[in-house]
Amino acid sequence: MTALKEKLASQISPMRSRVKSLIAEHGERKLSEVSVANLYGGMRGVKSLVTETSAVDPQEGIRFRGYSIPEIRERLPRAEGGGQPLPEGLFYLLLTGEIPGADEVREITAGWRESEALPAHVKACLDALPTDTHPMTQLSAGILALQHDSIFARRYQAGMPKTDYWDPAFDDAMLLIGRLPLVAAYIYRRSYKGGDHLPPDPGLDWAANLAHMLGIENPEFRELMRLYLTIHADHEGGNVSAHATHLVGSTLADPYLSLSAGINGLAGPLHGLANQEVMRWIVNVKEKLGGGVPSKEQLTTFLWDTLNSGQVVPGYGHGVLRATDPRYIAQREFALKHLPDDENFMIVRMLFDLVPEILRQHGKAKNPWPNVDAHSGCLLVHYGLTEYDFYTVLFGVSRAIGVLSSLVWDRALGLPLERPKSVTTDWIASECAS
Ligand code: AMX
């Protein structure tokens, strides 16, 4: 058993007892109310899920097991000579609540990179899809094809006791996360590089190896991938990718089936697909104006045109946040350090100066500030990753770390099938009339 699995195993029994006594002592205590507006309003703010790995404060943003983004950037182990946290370290933190040391992180890198050959049938499955199939569709299909190797599904069929569910869920998570960069790179190279695939480099950490297999051999891009794959990993439990993974997993569908569901949710333009939409919006502006950095006046006109035609400004607003997303700030700091004069970054900065005030005047969005997706595109383009449709795949590879950590805890705590009650509009109307 690895150190991580051992640590996890030692935490499960006390946590089960804690939850049991909370339910026994306070089971009837009310934590939230549900209004008619909530039912029609996407359940914003209704406390109805338990997620141990992270929590979002509307003002401060994400905390992973209590640690803010600046704190994890400071405290998580880095690659040798690197300045960014390793996603491996975040995985350890999300699962255990503890900051790992370099040895623990090395062990996770080794685990993820152990069986990273992509099975032939997975390649064949992806190759059967037209190369212009959206990369997120390919990612979801690739994850489903990998499900053939699910240890959870096999052990469930063999009749494992409930108390053991977390164990193969963890093993599946390790293998699946380890293979995701292979799937992502395979999709990228078949979709955009004529199927000229690049073999993994065994000497690299997980994120750097993904950068390598994409074909971008730039140490700064490796650093970007480490940061990117860390900060996109988790955003508490109610966002669509996390919630969908949790919901499907509550049927005891294995981690592959569950993650594929979460990835399908991430592929929506109001969720993870916003990152490709931001870059597309910027390029569209530049094309219409004949290239270069537009003036403030020109950008303002484009922003109002977008809003007046009934579209959203991608990368701005949020279901929970009410301030600038710290994941945006982390990427901005990276850009200020490494690409301060980049043209697209200059536009992203101008948008930061303009959009909040325009959205305020527009008067609809509850949060006029940028979210994580407003920034990532300009960084990726800078290092040569210019295929916008691929961006959400990187988000998905990272998100797997968070939602699969949560799924392991779901199974450890024996969380049941999720099955809220639905009602009809007639029922609501008659209830309100009484
Ligand atoms: N541009 C224009 N209008 C916006 C807006 C934006 N960026 N953000 C919100 N609004 C509008 C909504 O469409 C809604 O309009 P309606 O009343 O006509 O339906 C109104 O403001 C109220 O919405 P809200 O309560 O502030 O937001 P929400 O919780 O319903 O939705 C989100 C949140 C992210 C879907 C929304 O802000 C949005 O569409 N943003 C642009 C897309 C985006 O960046 N998505 C990525 C989010 C981060 C992520 O998940 N990766």
First CA to last CA: what distance?
Answer: 60 Å
Number of strands: 3
Structural class: mainly alpha
Radius of gyration: 22 Å
Widest sheet, order of strands? 1-2-3
Give me the strand/helix succession.
HHEEEHHHHHHHHHHHHHHHHHH
Low-confidence region ranges: none
Beta strand %? under 5%
Helix content: 55-70%
Describe the biggest sheet? 3 strands, antiparallel
- Please state the overall shape, judged from the principal axes of the Cα atoms: globular
Ligand inventory reads:
amidocarboxymethyldethia coenzyme *A
Give the helix tally: 20
| Nearest-integer average pLDDT | 97
Describe this entry's structure for a reader.
The chain is an all-alpha fold. The chain has a 3-stranded antiparallel beta sheet. The radius of gyration is 22 Å and the shape is globular. Bound molecules: amidocarboxymethyldethia coenzyme *A. The site of amidocarboxymethyldethia coenzyme *A has 22 residues, from loops.
Blueprint of the fold:
Elements: H1 3-26, H2 36-40, E1 54-57, E2 61-64, E3 67-68, H3 69-75, H4 87-96, H5 102-112, H6 120-127, H7 135-146, H8 151-158, H9 166-192, H10 206-214, H11 219-231, H12 240-249, H13 255-266, H14 274-288, H15 296-308, H16 326-338, H17 343-362, H18 373-382, H19 391-412, H20 425-433
Antiparallel strand pairs: 1-2, 2-3
Helix pairs in contact: 4-19, 5-9, 6-7, 6-9, 7-9, 7-13, 9-10, 9-19, 10-11, 11-16, 11-19, 12-13, 12-19, 13-19, 14-18, 15-17, 16-18
Amidocarboxymethyldethia coenzyme *A binds next to loops.
